[in-house]
Structure formats: structure tokens, C-alpha cells
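Design a sequence for this backbone.
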């Protein structure tokens, strides 16, 4: 079947299977966001994830830059954030090509720990520097006086911009910062759309790089042996 086909006005496009991981300190809201996206409702009590939880979900997305419709199947590994699960958790990174990296906007330590989470993700996924989104969770608690030590949106944005500046030219994707509330449903769908968009950008970029390498190898061979 052609990768792009018009059927009844709807473009059926490329199919993409994407393993993604949800990472960040224990209690920052990973499971709550996953549940919200899957329409499973919000729970006030904290039930920590043991090891990892798995869910899968499909979505369609029109990628503006390449003018292509994609059907994406996310395989979501929602990893336990508590330190005691580190050894088992590390096994789940392999093969991931996207990550939602969470901190809780009411918990500065969870923001400080992001660097380590991101390093681990890149070191262990087997693909190196692949897309991620920085998620500032629990935005409904923004400006709540019960949580005076909050991480401002500026920190998240500047961090994302810095990582983008370092990586964009070499890896072809941007890192976005987005604030979410699983409780109120804010930006829940958007998080996955943004990540999907950057995964597509990254996959296309790598593909293009491979093609360019092939062409330049062919040129070298024909320069050396082809032209007499
Ligand atoms: N107010 C508010 N509370 C939230 C939100 N998201 C999660 N919580 C609460 O934060 C606590 C932890 O949420 P979880 O989603 O279980 O956290 P987690 O990151 O999966 O934690 P681990 O599984 O231990 O890694 C729970 O009590 C949730 O009710 C949110 O958007 N707003
Ligand atoms: Mg969890």
C-alpha cells in the first residue's frame, strides 16, 4: 500500500510505532498524566508505580513540515520514579525513541534531578540523543500559597531552549517545555502531540542523514573508480 493514500478526503499516512518512556522523580505525576490521556480519570491518593506500567495508545497526526499524515502507535512505559526501583527501571529504556521528562512545579528538587533522568535516558536507550519533552506537572497548583517554593515557567522554558540550542542542528529535533495538569486535563493531549511531532522530525532527519551519507559514499567511489 502506498504510504500516502487519499480515501474519502482523509489522508492515510505513514505508520510509526514509537516506544516512549515517562520519567522523573517519584510522585511528580507521570501515572496521573498517562491515566488522564487514556481517559482513566484522576486519583487524589498516591499509589506509586512498582517497576513499570505499560499502556499503548494510537493517534493520528498531520506533520506540517513534511505535509504527511502519520498513524502513530505509542508504546508507553510509565517508569517508577522512586530510587529503590533504579536497577529494574534501567532495563526499560532500551529501544525508546521518545521521553516525557517530568518534574513537579511545586517541588524544586524534582526539577534539579531532571538532568540525571535525561542523561540516563540517552545513555540507556540504545539510540543516543533522541527526542524528549520537559513536562512541568501539576499546573493547577501554580500560585497556590500552600506550595511557596515553586519552579517558575521561565526555568522550564530556558532549560528546554538551552537543550534545543545544543542539539537541534545535529539531531534535528527541538525540546519543548510544557505545563500540564492531569487533575484539570490541561495540555494532556498536547504533550503527546508535541512529542510525536518531534519524534517524526528526528526520524526524518536521521533518514535524510543516512541518504546523504550513501550518496556521498557513492560519489567518492565514482570519483575514484568511475571516471577515467
Ligand atoms: N494537584 C495535582 N495533583 C496531581 C497531579 N498529577 C498527579 N497528582 C498527584 O500527585 C501524586 C503522585 O502522582 P503519580 O502520577 O502517581 O506520580 P508518579 O510520577 O507516577 O510517581 P511514581 O509512580 O512513584 O514514580 C498523586 O497523589 C496524584 O494525585 C496534578 O496534575 N495536579
Ligand atoms: Mg507512577
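Sequence:
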Amino acid at each position: 500500500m502506498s504510504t500516502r493514500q487519499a480515501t474519502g478526503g482523509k489522508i492515510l499516512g505513514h505508520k510509526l510505532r514509537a516506544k516512549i518512556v515517562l520519567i522523573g522523580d517519584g510522585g511528580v505525576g507521570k501515572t496521573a498524566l498517562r491515566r488522564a490521556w487514556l481517559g482513566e480519570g484522576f486519583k487524589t491518593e498516591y499509589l506509586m508505580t512498582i517497576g513499570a506500567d505499560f499502556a499503548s495508545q494510537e493517534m493520528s497526526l498531520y506533520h506540517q513540515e513534511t505535509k504527511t499524515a502519520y498513524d502513530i502507535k505509542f508504546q508507553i512505559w510509565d517508569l517508577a520514579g522512586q530510587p529503590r526501583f533504579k536497577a529494574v527501571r534501567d532495563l526499560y529504556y532500551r529501544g525508546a525513541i521518545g521521553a516525557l521528562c517530568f518534574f513537579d512545579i511545586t517541588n524544586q528538587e524534582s526539577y534539579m534531578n531532571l538532568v540525571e533522568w535525561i542523561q540516563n535516558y540517552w545513555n540507556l536507550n540504545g539510540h543516543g540523543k533522541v527526542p524528549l519533552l520537559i513536562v512541568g506537572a501539576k499546573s493547577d497548583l501554580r500560585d497556590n500559597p500552600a506550595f511557596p517554593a515553586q519552579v517558575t515557567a521561565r526555568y522550564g522554558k530556558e532549560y528546554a531552549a538551552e537543550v534545543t540550542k545544543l542539539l537541534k542542528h545535529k539531531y534535528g529535533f527541538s525540546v519543548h517545555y510544557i505545563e500540564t495538569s492531569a487533575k484539570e486535563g490541561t495540555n494532556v493531549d498536547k504533550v503527546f502531540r508535541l512529542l510525536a511531532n518531534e519524534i517524526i522530525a528526528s526520524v526524518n532527519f536521521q533518514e535524510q542523514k543516512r541518504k546523504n551519507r550513501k550518496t556521498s559514499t557513492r560519489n567518492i567511489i565514482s570519483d575514484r573508480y568511475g571516471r577515467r
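The beta strands are 5-7, 10-12, 14-23, 52-63, 68-79, 98-104, 132-137, 177-180.
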